[in-house]
Amino acid sequence: MSSVSPIQIPSRLPLLLTHEGVLLPGSTMRTSVDSARNLQLVRNRLLKGTSLQSTILGVIPNTPDPASDAQDLPPLHRIGTAALAVQVVGSNWPKPHYTLLITGLCRFQIVQVLKEKPYPIAEVEQLDRLEEFPSTCKMREELGELSEQFYKYAVQLVEMLDMSVPAVAKLRRLLDSLPREALPDILTSIIRTSNKEKLQILDAVSLEERFKMTIPLLVRQIEGLKLLQKTRKPKQDDDKRVIAIRPIRRITHISGTLEDEDEDEDNDDIVMLEKKIQTSSMPEQAHKVCVKEIKRLKKMPQSMPEYALTRNYLELMVELPWNKSTTDRLDIRAARILLDNDHYAMEKLKKRVLEYLAVRQLKNNLKGPILCFVGPPGVGKTSVGRSVAKTLGREFHRIALGGVCDQSDIRGHRRTYVGSMPGRIINGLKTVGVNNPVFLLDEVDKLGKSLQGDPAAALLEVLDPEQNHNFTDHYLNVAFDLSQVLFIATANTTATIPAALLDRMEIIQVPGYTQEEKIEIAHRHLIPKQLEQHGLTPQQIQIPQVTTLDIITRYTREAGVRSLDRKLGAICRAVAVKVAEGQHKDAKLDRSDVTEREGCREHILEDEKPESISDTTDLALPPEMPILIDFHALKDILGPPMYEMEVSQRLSQPGVAIGLAWTPLGGEIMFVEASRMDGEGQLTLTGQLGDVMKESAHLAISWLRSNAKKYQLTNAFGSFDLLDNTDIHLHFPAGAVTKDGPSAGVTIVTCLASLFSGRLVRSDVAMTGEITLRGLVLPVGGIKDKVLAAHRAGLKQVIIPRRNEKDLEGIPGNWDPYCPWKDTA
After folding, report:
1. What is residue 241's predicted lDDT score, i.e. its pLDDT?
2. What's the CA gap between 177 and 172, in Å, rounded?
3. CA atoms of 810 and 346, how far apart (whole Å)
4. Are 153 and 218 in contact (CB under 8 A)?
5. 462, 441 in Cβ contact below 8 A?
6. Catalytic pick from 35, 408, 743, 754?
7. Alpha-carbon distance 452 to 651, whole Å?
8. Among 425, 409, 405, which residue's Cα sits nearest to residue 468?
């Protein structure tokens, strides 16, 4: 083997004091640096140095703990190891420290300490040559039998280890490739030795002395391995004998220990599970999978983690309702009565449920429809789903999808994961115990998306009638038929539902309620429910319809009835306090009467008699029943009205108009205000407007400027150029609310026309519609919600685009929005 030129270490080396071990040449060690001296060494030498020599350190084994940070340098060991810093990793927790990966190069001897602070630097003398020791005949002759003996023990030690381990195989190859003179240091760092023994090897500068000291260490390690192998062999034989004997013990029932009893119980459970699989009505494919898994379970030790996973899987497969279903109640007349009793209005929705019942009566194997109820909060979408299940006589299960962002919630986890579970669909079927329930997928428009997948995409298979007969959950890994499940989804808006998912569902709009409908709902459902919840009776409280109307118009402004329900609950709580106080007074008065009849007298001082008489008078006056809730009682209980009719006040000057907007929470009225001032013809828009509404404003001003002469619109200077030396400011109040959408064009035109003509806009009129640059009025959406918002605000007339006339069918016949074209049509 050819030699290489020797590498000389620097004559001056910074000293790293270690107490975690002894580094020998040719070995690698990881050491922690947390003392002040060593930290300064790493920061100033390793982190700032750029040359190779700056990464060479002198590693000195130090018996005292260097973390003590003594002022004086502790006594240093005479011989150390020059090392190369391969890696530096720093951390500040729990205190600043570094972790170094260092490789030993050669031995050195300290000649003189040149510097102690901030870290020690010493003049050193190199003891080993940094070159490959040539395997020449001369070296072999000098060491003779000592080297051969060491090599023989080293090979014997390595071959006693498991050669299938890559590190052991690599070590065996190194024994042949490395020069034998380098092996004592390397093997001493590998075998089990104490720091004291390693320190003795480090001090052995002579190669012959090093061989003599290392051979006993190898022999000791070999003897230890032989003893370990002797003790392991009988134990392995015993294990085999126990495994072979255990089935015999089970058969003969010799053992009566608790462990065997538990095993017998588990065996009984497995036998019962196998019987359930054989008698179940699951499909052939699922049955094959279960039979295969039960065979694996019998051969599996109970201590294996997969045992519990497999058993849970088989129990789920047995409990699933593969062919178990409920019989639908197909009496359409009874269904109509039940739906009418549970919910007022919602005619379109009830009609669709009755249609399904009629077709189901004519055809037995009808696939379940995929319905989606879209409407503002509080209109009863979720409760309608429960009523549909009640009408059909089916089981009902609700799955809340709001905030779900993991597709495994729908499809389940694969059984390769720890803690895997089936998805919500399969888990819901297990809960209800039938394969044709009504599943309510609540808040389907609020599904999220994350790194774990898109649950909306996972729902595509569930909600597709052509695919869900073969739905495969990742946990089950076999197909399950969902075609008989009636899926009902609810959403506040379709804007956030992916188009592919929306295409699979039948959309049924559930708009808000009119005032008349809210009054009926309150007296049919909400008031009786609140009376029952608060322990009151109609003989104790009466809420007239006039009072209910006041609550609807003055204390709530919503599309649904949730706020109305809360207000009624507040009234019932206040009445409950009065009723409870009256009963308490009646009880006191009855006790005083009994006391007088029994002749029990109390000694009362003369000056206290009038007060006692007045107290008795107060006790004799409980509140009159029933308690009537009028407007004054409303003011005392709910406070001053929250919504006053401010429309006429805000439209008392030109340049103000009322528009209508649609939101996921229902329709809203929206004021548009405009003002003009001297300027340079600029248009200012405020109120957190989106890009679409900004474009509508620019369209409106452009159309008005082009038609100013036709409608005699002039600016403050009498010019038909409306922006000549004039600035216009358009504002949409409630500036903290973001606004956008293509339905404000007509309102902006009306507002600006009022501003430039000086004529007031009627205070009982609201409008909606979009315009084009040529003045055409385009249709918009959400007409019923917008009209309901105008109705709630007390507006008498609503102007809508003519092409939205088809949307008037959903509006009650006792009140209609104003349609200017009806007189001329």
Report:
1. 45
2. 9
3. 10
4. yes
5. no
6. 743
7. 53
8. 425
Q: Residues 446-456: what's their mean pLDDT?
A: 89
pLDDT at residue 122, as a whole number: 93
Question: What residues are designated binding site?
Answer: 375-382
Distance CA 471, CA 409 (A): 14
Residue 423 pLDDT level (bands cut at 50, 70, 90):
very high
pLDDT score of 799: 92
pLDDT tier, 674 (very low <50, low <70, confident <90, very high otherwise): very high
Instruction: Return the minimum-mean-pLDDT range out of 525-539, 574-588, 651-665.
Output: 574-588
Hey, which residues does 658 pair with through a beta bridge?
671
Domain 332-508: CATH architecture, name and number where available: 3-Layer(aba) Sandwich (3.40)
pLDDT greater at residue 286 or residue 716: 286
The tokens for 652 are: 């008392």
Q: Does residue 552 contact residue 638 with C-beta atoms inside 8 Å?
A: no
Catalytic status, residue 567: no
pLDDT, tens only, 546-561: 999 999 988 988 888 9
Sign of CA dihedral 217, 222, 225, 227: negative
C-alpha–C-alpha distance, residues 800 and 271, integer Å? 73
Can you say whether the dihedral through the CA atoms of 774, 779, 785, 791 is positive or negative? positive
Partners of 666 in beta bridges: 663
Q: How many CA atoms lie within 13 A of 495 on its CB side?
A: 9
Instruction: Give the residue extent of every domain in the chain.
Output: 12-126, 160-228, 269-319, 332-508, 513-578+624-644, 656-807
Contacts of 261 (CB under 8 A, 6+ apart): none
Q: How confident is the model at residue 237 (pLDDT cuts 50, 70, 90)?
A: low
Main-chain phi, psi angles of 442, to 5 degrees: -80, 140
Which residues are part of a known binding site for ATP?
Answer: 375-382
pTM of this prediction exceeds 0.70: no
The pair of structure tokens assigned to 365 is: 């194997």
8 A C-beta contact, residue 219 and residue 153: yes
Stretch (H or E) spanning 14: strand 12-18
User: In CATH, what class is 513-578+624-644?
Assistant: mainly alpha
Q: CA-to-CA distance for 736 and 686, rounded, in angstroms?
A: 10
Q: Is 743 a catalytic residue?
A: yes
Instruction: Tell me the residue length of the chain.
Output: 825
Question: How are beta strands 541-542 and 438-442 bridged, if at all?
Answer: unpaired
Gyration radius from the chain CA atoms: 45
Residue 571: count of CB within 10 angstroms of its CB: 22
CA-based nearest residue to 310, from 210, 420, 397, 231: 420
d(CA 250, CA 271): 15
**Class (C level, CATH) for 12-126:** mainly beta
3-state secondary structure 150-187: HHHHHHHHHHCCCCCCHHHHHHHHHHHHCCHHHHHHHH
The fold of the 656-807 domain, in CATH, is: Ribosomal Protein S5; domain 2 (3.30.230)
- The whole-number pLDDT of residue 71 equals 66
Closest CA relative to residue 321, chosen from 484, 449, 454: 484
